[in-house]
Design goal:
Layout (H helix, E strand, L loop, with lengths): L11 H10 L6 H15 L8 E5 L2 E5 L5 H8 L6 H16 L4 E6 L5 H10 L3 E6 L3 H12 L6 E4 L2 E3 L3 E6 L9 E4 L10 E7 H7 L7 E4 L5 H11 L8 E5 L10 H7 L1 E6 L3 E6 L10 H6 L8 H6 L2
Parallel strand pairs: 3-4, 3-10, 4-5, 6-9, 10-11
Antiparallel strand pairs: 1-2, 7-8, 7-9, 11-13, 12-13
Helix pairs in contact: 1-2, 4-5
Length: about 300
């Protein structure tokens, strides 16, 4: 990826396709039409090439063939994570009104689209940690950052887990966003697998001198519980994020550890097709948000009915 931004500008036919799909309505019919139209462009791409475009008022290079999030943002930005972006934007407005820098932690950052969106909302007044272990995603992420000098995004090139060590990347060649991390066992992994550094979330935050978190997004293909359970077990409550966006398409009560946390301390405010958005409740008077409660699980007396009902 040696070309500077602008070297992969869309040609006239590609511009016409992108302009058309970008104006389609955000509904089922609009999505189906966009899928049909984008094939005109994607079939003409060689290898895994991309296009230099503007999104969120920033310059980005998007590779639509083997990464679903890049494809979505390129062709239908009006449909890309609408609910999640609205929640994040509202949090940035709240932070500005309170006169404090906005802190965002993007776990499973992929090529940095959530991080770039938040950067477009806060300018240089804030801190964004983009955590991503997959080497090609990291290269694309760094390119997008370098194309926008001054964005407050710091790349954390590591996997996250319960503790420090190593992890194996199970790379999804059809969709880079589907890459998973697996436990590392010495001499028990195929030679073609990529071995990466692994740290705990709390360790990363301490190394980056993070004192509080306004919003945290986590999408790590099934490893969310391992990362968050260790974090909420060990982290001081002052470090708990005010807003969490977590991938979950099913019943949240079936997510071990996270369900305990949400039942006691977080309110489920919104659900999208793929994610759940939660806000941290005000500090409770009862000891229902203590470390011991998170470890042992909720009691029937401390679980608010309104939260339990929102998890269904």
């Amino acid at each position: 990826m040696s070309e500077e931004y602008g070297a992969l500008a869309p040609r006239w036919l590609d511009r016409a396709v992108i302009a058309t799909t970008s104006r389609l309505p955000d509904n089922w019919l609009g999505l189906r039409l966009s899928i049909a139209l984008r094939r005109i462009t994607t079939k003409r791409l060689t290898d895994d090439s991309g296009f230099d475009v503007e999104r969120f008022g920033l310059r980005v290079r998007l590779h639509p063939r083997r990464n679903g999030c890049e494809k979505f943002l390129l062709f239908v930005p009006q449909m890309y994570e609408v609910t999640e972006r609205a929640a994040l934007a509202a949090q940035t407005v709240k932070a500005k009104a309170e006169g404090r820098p906005f802190v965002f932690v993007d776990i499973g950052a992929n090529v940095g689209l959530f991080s770039l969106f938040v950067a477009s909302c806060i300018g240089r007044d804030g801190k964004i940690l983009a955590v991503e272990p997959e080497p090609e995603n990291i290269r694309r992420l760094r390119f997008n950052i370098e194309a926008n000098p001054g964005v407050p995004i710091r790349v954390i090139a590591t996997a996250l887990g319960e503790s420090s060590g190593k992890a194996i990347l199970d790379i999804d060649s059809r969709d880079r966003g589907g890459t998973r991390t697996l436990p590392w066992q010495e001499q028990e992994h195929p030679p073609d697998r990529v071995v990466v550094e692994c740290r705990s979330l709390l360790q990363v935050l301490r190394e980056e001198h993070v004192q509080s978190i306004d919003a945290l997004k986590i999408d790590v293909e099934g490893a969310e519980n391992i990362i968050l359970s260790a974090f909420f077990r060990d982290a001081p409550r002052a470090l708990w994020p005010r807003l969490v966006i977590i991938e979950s398409a099913g019943d949240l009560r079936e997510v071990p550890g996270c369900s305990r946390l949400m039942a006691h301390c977080y309110t489920v405010t919104t659900r999208s097709k793929q994610n759940v958005i939660m806000c941290l409740e005000p500090p409770p008077e009862a000891p229902s948000c203590t470390a011991s409660t998170l470890r042992d699980g909720p009691s029937s007396e401390s679980c608010p009915k309104r939260v339990a009902q929102s998890l269904t």
